[in-house]
Amino acid sequence: MTDFAADSILVHLDVMPSGELAKSAAGLLGAAAQVGTPVALIVVGEERRDAVVAAAGELGAAVVLTTGLNGADTALTVPVVDALAAASALVTPDAVLISNSIEGRDVAGRFAVRSSSALCVDAVGVARDAEGVLAEHSVYGGAYTSISAPTFGAAVITIRQGAIDARAEAVASPVVVPLDVAASGLPAATIESFDEAVATSSRPELRGAGKVVSGGRGLGSKEKFALVEDLADTLGAAVGASRAAVDAGYVPYSYQVGQTGVSVAPQLYIALGISGAIQHRAGMQTAKTIVAVNKDGDAPIFDIADFGVVGDVFTVVPQLIAALEAGKK
Ligand code: FAD
Fold it and tell me: Which of 90, 110, 127, 285 is the most exposed place for a label (fewest CB within 10 A)?
């Protein structure tokens, strides 16, 4: 019987269809290590188990609870919530950390209801005080940080992808604990068929990307938006957009950054021809370094930019690309 540390933090790690741990794993374990001892839970088929356990150890999981799929390949969410319930009963953690992905939010919400826990969504940081684990949120377009301080039980916290820089120390041989999961039999959406979408882009995915280059209405047309993509490719960055650029049809909705789009927290965010409306800022203001190019020196994006260029994107960006290319030689 494994003894779990009194300050254990239970971390649910997603496994991708490719069989690898999701990119969010490093930040989740990093966050857990800041406030306690990370204990990972991985729901995975037996053939992938050893590889993902080793990967979790490298990212700082001292203990890894593993359980088979228990129907997670044929039903959405409920099998993972069942596994979390079993893991939580075993570990009695101080908090439960889950990625703020679409699936993660679903799992977290259901698990919080089932365990009568406080739910703190889209946290950009965690901390601890005398009473337990706290979640930090970036609110009102990033203008304020609010703290959730649950007063009972272990908080269930979803962590924004890319928001946590801290990394836990690697553990060479994590303790592996097989978990017995009793299926709750609660209703779940059934997966009838499964098609793996083949990425047609070699660019990083926007959610969780380390670098993002976004374009706004200032690009002027779908054709001219290619300039944003050129700079992104030069930097190895993901491409994002403002809602105005999406509404104008320059790029699909999946590119939209902001309150009603994707929230990103990259190391570098470059905003090209974007005014910086509060709804856009809500999705990118926690980026570590913000660079803006806008021909209007009074554009609100400059209020939050670390580096700003007042100029025409069609003049500035080609020069920037040329300089970056020259630097690579
Ligand atoms: P604009 O505000 O039109 O700004 C274009 C900028 O480009 C200007 O600052 C201009 O000076 C500059 N420019 C023009 N030409 C050039 C050039 N050649 N070189 C350099 N600069 C140039 N917006 C989002 O982005 N994401 C959201 O999720 C979102 N959700 C919303 C939800 C609600 C409920 C509402 C009401 C709005 C939402 N919006 C959202 C819309 C938001 O309010 C703004 O309208 C939008 O962000 C503006 O996009 P933009 O900056 O590209 O366009």
Answer: 127
